[in-house]
Amino acid sequence: MTIATHPITAKAHTNIALVKYWGKLDTQLIIPQNDSLSMTLDEFYTKTSVQFLPELATDKVIFDGEELSDKDSAKIRTFLNLVRDLAHITYRAKVETKNFVPTAAGLASSASGFAALAGAASRAAGLNLNRRDLSRLARRGSGSATRSIFGGFVAWQQGHDDETSFAYPIDEQPTWDLAVIALVLTAKQKKISSRVGMQLAVETSPFYVEWIKASQADFETVKTAIQNQDFTLLGHTSEQNAMRMHALTLSSDPNFTYFNADSLRAMKMVKDLRLQGIPCYFTMDAGPNLKIICQGADAERIAQHFQAVFGDKQVLITRPGSGISISD
């Protein structure tokens, strides 16, 4: 095992959860309360370069061109400690990362961010992890990052400890024509983080146990939909799963929501399109921005429908994306 003598760069794409992870069984190891399933997206990604250097007294983290303070880089430095422990090294690291995702706005920037960091940092430290172990490592930074190691449709096995909780591919290169239209209704950071929101739901929502049961059933349904290339079943189940997750925020104490007025308007527009015979479904993570799941042939006209209301720059078409790439 040899520390790299030059920066190692990794590129990882974000993902949208079709069956959500919302709540941790183990907050330290980030073991989820249920299995989840996602689609990796090709349009949104993070590129991160890492080099461990003997002359550094502390980790240096540069995010989108600006060096982060110790406070703002604390989570990254904690993650780098995990890598150092695995590699049995003590060198501090220089990290340069660029996000091609609106940060903390419900488009899973932490997923692509920590997946890319896991890939670049582990290789820079001299580790050569297989994808399962890379998925396990990424999970320690952000739960959803465990799925961004793989492309296409990806499942996250709940597991019960660090060894057994990891992601695995369901269909890395889907052959059916699918698209996702991302509505960036706001790029502002959300007021309640996913971590805080999850914990509130686990501790206070009276419906949480039923959510887990419903999500496990949704997981099997979406897997079947993928195997059969059943778009209607995939879309309907994903939309229902998202709304049930957001019902947990409304039933928590104190209650809160990630919706804003534009979120509600866009949801109605999706439902109206379905009534007009244009099949499409929405999903939402912990933020106000909708992702509209549709068939590729319908993507342009659906996008134009939303561009007329929200503006051209707020509507982005993306498709299933690839897994992590690491370049020496």
UniProtKB/TrEMBL annotation:
Keyword Metal-binding: no
InterPro entries: GHMP_kinase_C_sf, Mev_decarb, Mev_diP_decarb, MVD-like_N, Mvd1_C, Ribosomal_Su5_D2-typ_SF, Ribsml_uS5_D2-typ_fold_subgr
Domain Mvd1 C-terminal intervals: 180-314
Presence of keyword Lyase: yes
Domain Diphosphomevalonate decarboxylase-like N-terminal: 12-167
UniProt keyword annotations, A-Z: ATP-binding, Lipid biosynthesis, Lipid metabolism, Lyase, Nucleotide-binding
Pfam families (UniProt xref): MDD_C, MVD-like_N
Entry's Gene Ontology cellular component terms: cytosol
Gene Ontology MF terms in the entry: ATP binding; diphosphomevalonate decarboxylase activity
Enzyme Commission number, as recorded: 4.1.1.33
Gene3D superfamilies recorded: 3.30.230.10, GHMP kinase, C-terminal domain
GO biological process: isopentenyl diphosphate biosynthetic process, mevalonate pathway
Family, as annotated: Belongs to the diphosphomevalonate decarboxylase family.
Protein name from the UniProt record: diphosphomevalonate decarboxylase
Encoding gene (name): mvaD
